[in-house]
Amino acid sequence: MLKLEGINKIFNEGTMDEKVALNNINLHLAPGDFVTVIGSNGAGKSTMLNMISGALTPDFGAITIDGKEVTKLPEFKRSQYIGRVFQDPMAGTAPTMTIEENLAIAYSRNKKRGLRFGVNRERKDFFRTSLEKLGLNLENRLNAKVGLLSGGERQALSLLMATFTRPAILLLDEHTAALDPSRAELITNLTKQLVEENNLTTLMVTHNMQQAIDLGNRLIMMDKGQIILEVDESKKPTLTIPDLMTEFEHIRGEKMASDKALLGS
Amino acid sequence: MFLSIFGSVEQGIIYAIMALGVYLTFRVLDFPDLTVDGSFVTGAATAAMMIVLGYHPIIATLIAIVAGFVAGCMTGLLHTKGKINPLLSGILMMIALYSINLRIMGLSAENAIVKPNIQLQSNETIFSQFQSFWSPLGIDDTLSNFVKSLGAAVAPNTWGTVLIVLIITVIIKFVADWFLKTEVGLAIRATGDNKRMIRSFSANTDRYTILGLGISNALVAFSGALIAQYSKFSDVNMGIGMIVIGLASVIIGEAIFGTKTIFRATLAVVFGAIIYRIIYALALRVPWLDSSDMKLITAIIVVLALVIPQLVSKQRDKKRKEKRRLERLAQQRELVTQGGE
């Protein structure tokens, strides 16, 4: 479903700030795979996601989605196939527009936008039933401006908007990191539910090791722009945090650097 | 007095079309577009030039709208493809249009390449054509007699003009309301609201920025074309400060009528433009003010309209905090007394 082949990226090449962001990344997601990505700050997790979404282009290497090569495809064209939820709850929705208008924008993702009304009765019903799944009573606030919602509500809405058109790939970029623990748990559960319901091929970056272990059928660990560990479907169910710590020390010959990665957040 | 206010309302309704254009860029797209000063004249110049050349006023007006659309798209291209800052894109386009507008008006004369103004005194305009349909109906007399019976000393020459501009502006307002709710309209609004978000839903923000600027300047040029026909001349300098007038209309309207829904917001803009014209007419009646002071007054209106809401909300915030402090104090006192018992 998603294939990364030999992806390389260097930031600020040829200057003092030169930084190897991605070093020969190879990754293959089969349809229905839910892969969690962990790694310390600067490991290249977000850069990898931005490559897939098209916000950044690799220096060289190829990206294929559903058999189509998309390496050079601009972000807005690629996002036909890709649903995304950002870390910042404010990033995924338009604050001055209403809930139903936001949903209408998301609904047009894989259609040509024309001069039809964005919200009509039929769509409204669909929006309402979709919102009911969130259990946040948003289905009764279709005309509320999104800017008035709390961070958790906005993130839940973002998640719904990213998934309800069943994109080929779902990218989650630390999408619970900016929320308080109870809201984060809510979003984590919703993620599980929506991904399963729509059978989405998902790539989720997280700082939280427990979350990375609890969710998904595969796990990869990144460090210094490389994928240093892959845990497949057979080993993932029995994986624990200490396992991951030992593995990291074993591979890198050093203690895991980030306390945040260790403790989760 | 009544007549000058009546005239202001007529003009205000025409300027409201320009203000709707400014609303579209400033508020909806969040793009401070200064092209307006140029594209307003482009509309006026194109319509006047074509009318002088003998084209039907409606055709002339339609071509003027297209000219404005193209001008807006150019600004959009400068910004999105040329990566030039929004303000600078608008300024560049405005300056370029100054020369272009002189050339456009030059097309109306056989013996000149450029022309700084065109007179339409003896030409047919949209208004004169409507008048020839309207006058025979005799509604003017009825209305004027009615107004005089209410105690007005004089009545306007015709009510036809205000009716036709009102019809045009109301239609545009409703079309704008409808457009901003279509799929394309929603995408344009989201482009102004959260570019990153709308890109992640497969919308080409460059295209929507260009389209939004095009539509906005088409409206501005339409307004310019109508003003040229209303006042029977077009002048290369008639657009100076137009953006600030548009902005003043938007801000005044929003302050009075609010922006809760798109319907309310566009209505507010239309009324804002009319109110601005009335303020303008009243200010001109102040004996020690000259008509050339109006630009200064307009600037002051915009500044006040921008600053006062900030001061008000700051004051409100202060009051709220003070109230909370007093409540807390009262609570503590109560606790102390309870503790003492």
Automatic annotation (TrEMBL), chain A:
<keyword id="KW-1003">Cell membrane</keyword>
<protein>
    <submittedName>
        <fullName>ABC transporter ATP-binding protein</fullName>
    </submittedName>
</protein>
<dbReference type="InterPro" id="IPR003439">
    <property type="entry name" value="ABC_transporter-like_ATP-bd"/>
</dbReference>
<keyword id="KW-0067">ATP-binding</keyword>
<keyword id="KW-0813">Transport</keyword>
<dbReference type="GO" id="GO:0005886">
    <property type="term" value="C:plasma membrane"/>
</dbReference>
<dbReference type="Pfam" id="PF00005">
    <property type="entry name" value="ABC_tran"/>
</dbReference>
<dbReference type="GO" id="GO:0016887">
    <property type="term" value="F:ATP hydrolysis activity"/>
</dbReference>
<dbReference type="InterPro" id="IPR017871">
    <property type="entry name" value="ABC_transporter-like_CS"/>
</dbReference>
<feature type="domain" description="ABC transporter">
    <location>
        <begin position="2"/>
        <end position="249"/>
    </location>
</feature>
<keyword id="KW-0472">Membrane</keyword>
<dbReference type="GO" id="GO:0005524">
    <property type="term" value="F:ATP binding"/>
</dbReference>
<dbReference type="InterPro" id="IPR003593">
    <property type="entry name" value="AAA+_ATPase"/>
</dbReference>
<keyword id="KW-0547">Nucleotide-binding</keyword>
<dbReference type="InterPro" id="IPR050166">
    <property type="entry name" value="ABC_transporter_ATP-bind"/>
</dbReference>
<dbReference type="InterPro" id="IPR027417">
    <property type="entry name" value="P-loop_NTPase"/>
</dbReference>
UniProtKB/TrEMBL annotation, chain B:
<keyword id="KW-0812">Transmembrane</keyword>
<dbReference type="GO" id="GO:0005886">
    <property type="term" value="C:plasma membrane"/>
</dbReference>
<feature type="transmembrane region" description="Helical">
    <location>
        <begin position="84"/>
        <end position="100"/>
    </location>
</feature>
<feature type="transmembrane region" description="Helical">
    <location>
        <begin position="296"/>
        <end position="313"/>
    </location>
</feature>
<feature type="transmembrane region" description="Helical">
    <location>
        <begin position="265"/>
        <end position="284"/>
    </location>
</feature>
<feature type="transmembrane region" description="Helical">
    <location>
        <begin position="49"/>
        <end position="72"/>
    </location>
</feature>
<dbReference type="GO" id="GO:0022857">
    <property type="term" value="F:transmembrane transporter activity"/>
</dbReference>
<keyword id="KW-0472">Membrane</keyword>
<keyword id="KW-1003">Cell membrane</keyword>
<protein>
    <submittedName>
        <fullName>ABC transporter permease</fullName>
    </submittedName>
</protein>
<feature type="transmembrane region" description="Helical">
    <location>
        <begin position="236"/>
        <end position="258"/>
    </location>
</feature>
<feature type="transmembrane region" description="Helical">
    <location>
        <begin position="208"/>
        <end position="230"/>
    </location>
</feature>
<keyword id="KW-1133">Transmembrane helix</keyword>
<dbReference type="InterPro" id="IPR001851">
    <property type="entry name" value="ABC_transp_permease"/>
</dbReference>
<dbReference type="Pfam" id="PF02653">
    <property type="entry name" value="BPD_transp_2"/>
</dbReference>
<feature type="transmembrane region" description="Helical">
    <location>
        <begin position="12"/>
        <end position="29"/>
    </location>
</feature>
<feature type="transmembrane region" description="Helical">
    <location>
        <begin position="159"/>
        <end position="180"/>
    </location>
</feature>
